[in-house]
Design a protein that fits this description.
Mean pLDDT of chain A: 94
Shape of chain A: globular
Largest sheet of chain A: none
Helix content of chain B: 25-40%
Number of strands of chain A: 0
Number of helices of chain A: 10
Oligomer: heterodimer
Strand content of chain A: under 5%
Strand order of the largest sheet of chain B: 6-7-8-3-9-10
Largest sheet of chain B: 6 strands, mixed
Strand content of chain B: 15-25%
Number of helices of chain B: 10
Distance between the termini of chain A: 50 Å
Order of helices and strands of chain B: EEEHEEHEHHHEHEHEEHHH
Largest interface: A-B, 15 and 20 residues
Mean pLDDT of chain B: 89
Chain lengths: 265, 267
């Protein structure tokens, strides 16, 4: 590589880093403003309820169906592995812990980012492109308070509920395959699950994870929409960035949270 | 203290970042109760001027005074208080696409007043009646034609009986009937509400028929102003070319380029 090429590469890395830090700063300011302007959402809960329908209720189908299939696959794979050690009766524990600790929050988070996150970005990006946000501002209505904050809180509330439903549906899928289809003893399936799954260590930690993921996904989705260039290309790029960034952030955060929650166990 | 002029623009210059100036030393007064047009070709700084009046932008130099208050000195609460008394019709309406026409018009009433829903309904119907869309109040913005959407947005802009109504290119992309309807509404609503109106436009004939006074901008500089008759008779070549839609004049038809012969390899 020539000297000019090396300099150009270093310049590109510097440019990319500066932009990334600048964007993170703008996104943090946006997040802070969202929290500061959340009063309207709590004074008028109907605004949040409306958004709960769009981000939560409309995501239910994909969450429940995916949860069922993931649980069924876990049932098959778990039984196959446990059979080798003669521990088929622990299938319920394996299915429940996998779902509650990891797969529930993570897969539900990835699905939520793809379904609700992308929709939020596209909606806000288009509102910006069609001057609806500017119109709101000219009507002395703060778009952060009226549009962004209710969506943020709806996302934060939806995500743990969706993750819980994903896990519940997954356990049902594992039951269908393990007990109904393969014939694992029903009593040991449920009783071992009940005795092995700890509320604080497993369920509460899973809820905390999904809550954190909910904050991250909704923040990214709303910021990308609000910051999108007001063109068709700008909105489509922002929507793609929401799904990619959210997915990477979920996986990264999952590693960090897991390392804190289950250390020394 | 109230003066005869609702909007006073004094020595205002504006540029985006460190770029070339968009507006240079603009002076302008908008008298109360009048309909005033700001004209000029695309890119002459008209919309920027409207944004300065609305307090969306801060001037690089000079000041914009609306109802006696300097807009860039107001904090956000004071600015919002002022904006509640302004209405802005955006170029393509900017209706909220997730709300019905009724809810669009009711939006500001619900956000800024404690009026009971029955009274809001009556007020919204009055506004929609004024723009001829009372029968369409249940429709969604996506179901309206361009002209109807513009009228619905106009009803929304005047929902709280503003003292100042601003129109950003209200005639763009309309068929002749819709265009005539909107032009008449601009004048009638201004007189009926006792408001003051600023129409930013490059549609010459429609604007000159309804306004009281015209300011003409060229490349961010005010080059002419006067009554519609004075503008029609203006001798300034930039205004003359604009008013009469001439191809040749100070505004060149061709974008600067190298010699055509060289371009096609003949020279």
């Amino acid at each position: 590589m020539s000297e000019h090429g090396v300099i150009a590469s270093i310049r590109n890395v510097g440019h990319w880093t500066t932009n990334a830090v600048l964007r993170l700063g703008i996104a943090t300011r946006f997040f802070t403003l969202t929290l500061l302007h959340s009063g309207t959402s709590f004074r008028r809960p109907r605004l949040i309820v409306r958004e709960l329908y769009f981000s939560g209720v409309l995501s239910l189908i994909i969450i429940l169906v995916s949860g069922l299939f993931v649980g069924m696959v876990l049932g098959f794979q778990g039984f196959h592995t446990l059979q080798t050690y003669g521990s088929e009766s622990a299938l319920g524990v394996l299915v429940a812990l996998s779902l509650v600790r990891e797969l529930g929050p993570v897969v539900a988070g990835l699905l939520f980012a793809s379904r609700a996150g992308s929709a939020m970005t596209a909606e806000i990006g288009l509102m910006k492109a069609t001057e609806q946000l500017s119109a709101m501002e000219m009507m002395a209505v703060d778009p952060i308070a009226r549009v962004v904050a209710p969506r943020f809180w709806a996302g934060v509330i939806s995500m743990p509920l969706l993750a819980a439903m994903f896990s519940a549906m997954g356990v049902f899928g594992g039951y269908l395959v393990g007990v109904v289809l393969i014939g694992v003893d029903e009593g040991s399936f449920w009783s071992q699950m009940q005795s092995a799954v700890d509320f604080r260590e497993d369920i509460l930690n899973g809820v905390i994870k999904s809550f954190v993921f909910g904050i991250a996904i909704t923040w990214i989705a709303l910021f990308e929409g609000y910051d999108a260039p007001p063109t068709a290309e700008g909105v489509s790029g922002a929507t793609t960035r929401t799904v990619v960034t959210s997915s990477l952030v979920i996986l990264g955060l999952d590693f960090i949270l897991t390392s804190f929650m289950f250390r020394g166990q | 203290m109230a003066t005869d002029h609702l909007v006073e623009i004094s020595d205002v210059s504006y540029s985006y970042g460190r770029g070339r100036p968009v507006l240079t030393e603009i002076n302008m007064t908008i008298p109360r109760g009048k309909v005033v047009a700001i004209m000029g070709i695309s890119g002459s700084g008209k919309t920027t001027l409207l944004r300065l009046i609305g307090g969306v932008l801060k001037p690089t130099r000079g000041q914009v005074r609306v109802d006696g208050r300097i807009t860039h000195e107001l904090d956000i609460e004071e600015l919002y208080q002022l904006r509640r008394r302004m209405g802005l019709l955006f170029q393509f309406g900017a209706l909220f696409t997730d709300l019905s026409i009724f809810d669009n018009v009711a939006f500001q009433m619900r956000e800024h007043t404690d009026l009971p829903e029955s009274m809001i309904r009556d007020l919204v119907m009055m506004k929609l009646q004024a723009v001829g869309l009372r029968g369409a109040h249940r429709m969604m913005p996506s179901e309206l034609s361009g002209g109807m959407a513009r009228r619905a947005a106009l009803a929304r802009a005047v929902a709280l009986d503003p003292m100042l109504i601003m129109y950003d290119e209200p005639f763009t992309g309309l068929d002749p009937i819709s265009l005539g309807v909107i032009a008449n509404l601009v004048r009638r609503l201004n007189d009926a509400l006792g408001a003051t109106s600023i129409v930013v436009t490059h549609d010459v004939q429609e604007a000159l028929d309804i306004v009281d006074y015209v300011y003409y901008l060229s490349e961010g500089v005010m080059v002419a102003h006067g009554t519609p008759e004075e503008i029609r008779a203006a001798q300034d070549p930039r205004v003359h070319q604009f008013v009469w839609g001439e191809m040749d004049g100070p505004v060149a038809f061709r974008y600067p380029s190298r010699n055509f012969g060289e371009e096609v390899g003949l020279v």
